[in-house]
Amino acid sequence: MQVTRLGRRYAKSLLELSIEMGKLEEVKSDIDRLLTVIKESRDFRLFTQSPVINSDIKIKTFDKLFGDTFNELTFNFIQIITRKGREAHLGSIAEGFQELYRKHKGIEKAVVTTAIPLSDQQKEELKQKLNLAVGKSIIIEEKIDPTVIGGMTLRVGDKQYNGSIAHQLNMLRRQFKSNLYIKDF
Q1: What per-residue confidence (pLDDT) applies to 185?
Q2: Looking at beta carbons, which pairs linking 157-166 to residues 24 or more positions away fall under 8 Å?
Q3: What is the residue-averaged pLDDT of the chain?
Q4: Which residues pair with 141 in a beta bridge?
Q5: I need a surface site. Which of 8, 79, 96, 104 has the fewest CB within 10 A?
Q6: Confidence label for 112 from pLDDT (cuts 50, 70 and 90)
Q7: pTM over 0.70
Q8: What is the four-CA torsion angle of 161, 167, 169, 172, rounded to 10 degrees?
Q9: CA separation for the pair 107, 160 (Å, rounded)
Q10: DSSP SS3 for 150
Q11: Where are the domains of the chain?
């Protein structure tokens, strides 16, 4: 999900307010759960993005879904977003909040793409090595892509390492195409 300028602006205000009120961890937990629902439920995404459904109905639905479990600050924030007609951007706001939270806590996100899932031991070893290399605490997001064939691609911040078999095969293919040597017989 893409973090938009609007999403980042609202996320920044929620982060600052939660820090000021001393409820950062509770709000982070709520935002994580909200983002999980947004990512996993197509119906919920369509519901939040529908211009036909009145904002009062959306607020009542949010109350039924999250009212008992969410922190008061988080729920009030969602109500304000909905009253302003910005509920379609909840996913972007939640992603922006997570991004700003990690930055605030000094945590770096590493995206690892492999052909098959990594074992817990492999994840832990990778995490330890990245902690030493980057000098920050690392959280690993794992993606599975069979086209990688083997090896992995790793993205930390704006740096990317591509150690996949597919990449190496593409490099070989390019070398063979540009080979100007013609053997004389």
Answers
A1: 57
A2: 157/108, 164/113
A3: 92
A4: 111
A5: 104
A6: very high
A7: yes
A8: -70
A9: 17
A10: coil
A11: 5-103, 107-178
Q: What does DSSP assign to residue 52?
A: S
List the one residue out of 86, 88, 4, 74 whose CA is nearest residue 38: 88
Question: What number is the average pLDDT over the span 166-174?
Answer: 91
Classify 109 in phi/psi space as left (phi over 0), alpha (psi -120 to 50) or beta. Answer: beta
Q: Which residue has the tokens 């098959």?
A: 116
For the purposes of burial, counting CB atoms within 10 Å of the CB of 70, is it exposed (0-12), middle (13-18) or buried (19 or more)? buried
Q: What pLDDT, on the 0 to 100 scale, is given for residue 118? A: 93
* CATH code for the part of the protein at 5-103: 1.10.520.20
Round to whole Å and give the CA distance between 141 and 112. 6
Distances, alpha carbon 6 to alpha carbons 14, 34, 45, 74, 94, in Å: 13, 18, 18, 18, 11
